[in-house]
What does this fold into?
Amino acid sequence: MRIAVFGATGTLGRHIVDAALGEGHEVTAFTRSAANVKQSHNRLRIVEGDVFDAAAVERAVIGRDAVVVALGAGAKGTVRAEGTRKVVEAMERTGVKRLVCESSLGVGDSKGNLNFVWKYLMFGLLLRAAYADHHRQEDIVRASALDWTIVRPSAFTDGPRTGAYRRDVPADARGLSLKISRLDIADFLVEQLTDTSYVHRTPGITN
It folds into this structure.
């Protein structure tokens, strides 16, 4: 497939690019600076721009078969939701239908999966802006006319690729580790490009 990755140079995004190239996809990496893209591949194309710039986003999206959004801003808000809005609008203008969007476990009906620390200290206080940003991001995606899948991973780790993580975590699941490696998350996101099992669904993934 011909795909575009937003957030391509982040700690998760670079693994998404690698995983997609490994699966034979043609990848467009969207970044503010080409110097931030460390990979080199004959199926890798780089588009420079700001995710808030509609014209730049459209250059990355047009002619693609699918888009992966893995925007991040640490504890800050606004980038995920408003950046995703620009991507969704560009996709709707150019007729690209398949969207795989990374959110977070604990958003929406998965809040019950969180333990006390994550519910009240992390998302309730330290990461409150980021948590609200993910909520807005999901609302934007859900309101679109796209064939979307919102993936909700738990906290990222630098652990190895295992393939042995829980998929589609039930909303009433408790006692979860609330950790998963970036490599496993990237594999799951890329898998959704060709798997329609979770279209218009919000699967949670964790170890």
About this structure: The chain has a mean pLDDT of 96. The helical segments are 13-22, 54-61, 79-94, 116-126, 128-142, 182-191.
